[in-house]
Amino acid sequence: MAYTSDQEPRSPRREVEKGDNASSSDGEPSQFNNTEADPDMGIEQDYGICQIETEKERQQPPGTRSALDRVLSRTSVTDKDPGPPPDGGFWAWSSAIAGHIMMLNSWGYNSSFGVFQTYYTSHLPNPASQIIWIGSVQIAALFFIGTFAGRLTDAGYFRATFAAGSVLTLLGVFMTSLSHTFWQLLLAQGLCTGLGNGLMFTPSLAVVSTYFKRRRALAFGIVSTGSPVGGLIFPSMARQLLGKIGFAWTVRAIGLVQLVTLIMANLLLRPRLPPRKAGPWVDIASFKEKGYFFFAIGIFFVFWGTFFPFYYMASFATSQLDKPLRYSDALNLLLVVNGVGIIGRSLPNAIAHHFGSITCIIPASFVSAVCLFSWPGVSTVGGLYAWASVYGLLAGACMSLYPPALSDLTTDYRDSNWTSDCWNYH
């Protein structure tokens, strides 16, 4: 069904919004929705939609659209309904496992930065206040690229986006092993690894959320426990290997673990929803929803200081206690705060399955803030271990309850951009 130049095409979006019984203005059934009349109309419909987009592009003045915008606009508006989330099945649970692996290699690696913070402070001439920028840029880059990664996922480029994130993550880790100065570490471990993490993080969360509705809190509990698992694996490797094989080969060993696991994640993740036409890169209209707006603002403040202890706890233990710990012993605190995080991410999600994610995240955030304010009063080794245990539980609850709480704000399971935009703004 091709349109000639003297025919004015109807907008496919308006046709889709009319529903299956929609009719055109001349009284004839809609050619986009009346699929029951002819089972072979699917290919012709898609071709017609592409023709409409091509005609619109010809009518626009040259130079008004970027090449990337033209690529994204060719993603057709589909009227094929994939049905409600299955809440189970092979691909549903494999996506949750792949999300777990992604969290292990992104947030698990990020939450282990306390290992590097303490090591860099003692081996580089730069002050601790400057070295912390490496970890800060790593998280900032993850959040910054999140919105753009979400848009590419919606447009049908999930596999390319996730694969690019995997490559950048591995490149950043292996280049870190070759770095010797602050600026080299900032570019490799901070910027490169952070961008790679962001290209994996938002798309994988969006894919997992499309497979679950009733069991969404449970699924995200499985996903989020990947962070403390990584927070146990990588500091343990550093603790055992740094003194034996040195910094460079320790980081390369971490990179090899990430290489194997990220290959598995790329094979297990499969998008369920068909591509849909991309809107603006940043969906400002979402903030007109009061629930979403206040949730985004609240999460911004919740996560403002959540990761501070993960970065500074080991340094605090080696310098601020009445009896300071050695570097190798201080790393045990990172194992504690990440280890109890497994419980903090799984138990609250099981409770949220019955009472709601938003109902659970509010008290968890409040008590976590109170716990942070009490940190300066800790002066003994035993007190710091106890504090790390409590904070690990609370921080884990906040981090794991956020994605299902955000997903619960919308009844349209296809609206995955809410997740990417909110992550970007916090």
From TrEMBL:
UniProt feature, compositional bias: Basic and acidic residues: 7-20, 67-82
Q: Which InterPro entries match?
A: MFS (IPR011701), MFS_trans_sf (IPR036259), Proton-linked_MCT (IPR050327)
UniProt subcellular location:
Membrane
**Composition bias type Polar residues, residue spans:** 21-36
| Superkingdom of the source species | Eukaryota
Q: What is this protein called?
A: Putative transporter mch4
The record's comment on protein family reads: Belongs to the major facilitator superfamily. Monocarboxylate porter (TC 2.A.1.13) family.
Checking Gene3D superfamilies in the record gives: MFS general substrate transporter like domains
A Pfam family assignment: MFS_1
Residue ranges of the region described as Disordered: 1-86
Q: What is its main location?
A: membrane
What GO molecular function annotations does the UniProt record carry, in alphabetical order? transmembrane transporter activity
* Membrane topology per record: Multi-pass membrane protein
